Amino acid sequence: MAAPNLRKRGRDSALIDLHLDRASGQPLNEQLYKGLKSLILNGVLRSGVRLPATRILAGELDVSRNTVLAAYDQLLAEGFTEARPGAGTRVSADLPDLSEDHRAADPLPQGAATPDLPARVLDLISRHQPGTTQHRAFLPGTPDVSAFPFEEWGRAAGRFWRRPPRDLLEDRDGRGHGPLRRAIADYLVAVRGAKCTADQIIITSGAQQGIDLCVRVLLEPGDPVVMENPGYRGLMSAFSTAGVAVVQAPVDGEGLNVARARALAPRPRLLAVTPSHQFPLGETMSLARRLDLLAWARDAGFWVLEDDYDSEYRYRGRPLAALQGLDGGDRVIYAGTFSKVMFPALRLGYLVVPEPLIEAFLRLRGAVDDFPALAMQPVLAEFMETGRFGAHVRRMRQIYGERQSILRDELTRRFSGLFTVPDDDAGMHLTVGLSDDAFHRGLRDGAISREAANLDVTARALSGYYAGSEKRHGLVLGYTAHPEETLRAAAARLEQATARAVKSD
Fold first, then answer.
1. How far apart, in whole angstroms, are the C-alpha atoms of residue 139 and residue 135?
2. d(Cα 344, Cα 208) in Å, to the nearest integer?
């Protein structure tokens, strides 16, 4: 693709002349996406600049409007652009100033034209943009912090930290606060059917740090690892920085397709899975497949990372037993988090590590950050020991279950024939699939997501969680953060956004 030129249209809208190579074999939408991203990263398209309307750019480049929509959707999904009500698509305001003047003020080391960083790191930096603090309806995985008992939490924190024990202030145990680890172990054994002791618990700064720690300890560059497709983007970020060979195995109604995963990567080093509530599809991994996976892991000698991100929220019956409990603790590393159960700013998660790996995890942990911050760990330990944690989970389970039912009813009433609404009974989000008829008529989840953003609604496109060309279209809709009236109003705006997307196509 030839170097792009940039002209101006109006006050703030860029008219972009990108020369697409139709003989290259590379899809035109991918060429356009890469060309626009390059202009943004090089500071040519600065923060706040409005991109041309999709119809105009399609006409300028002599391509279909769907080609431009696909490129715009990818830029939006990766955070390079944002859609503002009444203002079209603009380069994200969250991006740093990438202009030549800005770069000159912070020069690179002498003799260096570009940062001397591994290609995988540069790729990750280009993909991971700063998140937004905007709290919009349907953002998945967000708890209702207004319902948290902060007064009780504050009193517990005050009692402890008015006269903290001297040994705690000097505690340097890389595993974390002992009473909290014991409380977590007791909870997992009783509620999740895990098989573990407090010695196997390692407290982390959220689940993402736990995942990163697993990657650092277990993987070398080039190692084959398996993850679900579609799957959690945080896993892909961690794997990308490690330079491993990622194999993405399909998910169906029984969760991860173990037979397909085995065919794609017979002897991986690590396999990551969300068996209790697959993210983002919401499927539960069948018992037959769980046992098959564990048998394969033992035979092939690889580790299984079980990401149990929202298992507390099952609205019919008891939470399912953890994969770790079926395994007996030999091959499975279990990752849990309090951020979704309590409040995100708590930033506390944990790992359950098989005994043969404990020493390696602690030594690596010591080399990275020595030991986890202890300020909130004793308070959380008291919350769990006194039963307040369990009471909070039970209360929120009832509230979230009601909100899920409300959203399911709204979606069924408003989108009959467009979306398939699952009979899900767990989690913090619903994933609705675009019907075959709507898809064949040209409707795409990226177009709906973009129109929803114009109406201040976060409706994440399911296709954005897939790797490769085979993708399902739908929407990933969180429902836990907002009350009934907000959910109903957001569903109405989503209906309006969908109508706009249908009309535009």
1. 8
2. 12
What's the CATH fold of domain 391-504? Aspartate Aminotransferase, domain 1 (3.90.1150)
Q: Which residues contact 351 (CB under 8 A, 6 or more apart)?
A: 201, 202, 204, 210, 213, 214, 333, 334, 335, 336, 361
- Find where tokens 């705006």 sit: 493
Distances (CA, A) of 286 to 229, 251, 276, 469: 17, 12, 9, 26
User: Rounded to the nearest 5°, which phi and psi values hold at 61?
Assistant: -95, -5
With H, G, I as helix, E, B as strand and everything else as coil, classify residue 419. Answer: strand
pTM confidence score:
0.76
pLDDT in single tens digits along all 505 residues of the chain: 444 444 444 444 455 667 788 777 778 888 888 888 888 877 778 878 888 888 888 877 888 887 888 788 778 766 788 876 666 788 887 665 444 443 333 433 444 344 566 666 666 655 554 554 456 889 999 999 999 999 999 998 998 888 887 777 766 778 999 999 999 999 999 999 999 999 999 999 888 899 999 999 999 999 999 999 999 988 988 898 888 999 999 999 999 999 999 999 999 999 999 999 999 999 999 999 999 999 999 999 999 999 998 888 988 876 678 999 998 768 999 999 998 999 888 889 999 999 999 999 999 988 877 777 788 999 999 999 999 999 999 999 999 999 999 999 999 999 988 999 998 889 999 999 999 999 988 899 999 999 999 999 999 999 999 988 889 999 999 999 999 999 999 999 999 999 999 876 5
Whether residue 499 contacts residue 454, with contact meaning beta carbons closer than 8 Å, is answered with: no
CATH class of domain segment(s) 5-118:
mainly alpha
**CB of 311 closer than 8 Å to CB of 322:** yes
Q: Do domains 172-373 and 391-504 have the same CATH topology?
A: no
Which contacts qualify for 207-210: CB closer than 8 Å, 24 or more apart? Answer: 207/234, 207/307, 207/309, 207/335, 207/336, 207/337, 207/339, 207/349, 208/234, 208/238, 208/349, 209/349, 210/335, 210/349, 210/350, 210/351
The secondary element (H helix, E strand) that includes residue 236 is helix 233-242
Q: Which amino acid is at 183?
A: A
Q: Which two tokens stand for residue 272?
A: 């990551």
Residue range 172-373 in CATH 3.30.465.10: no
CA distance 45 to 97: 10
Residue tagged 């999904």 (tokens):
77
Q: Map out the domains of the chain as residue ranges.
A: 5-118, 172-373, 391-504
Distance, CA of 23 to CA of 21 (rounded, Å): 5
State the SS3 of 3-45: CCEEEEECCCEEEEECCCCCCCCCCHHHHHHHHHHHHHHCCCC
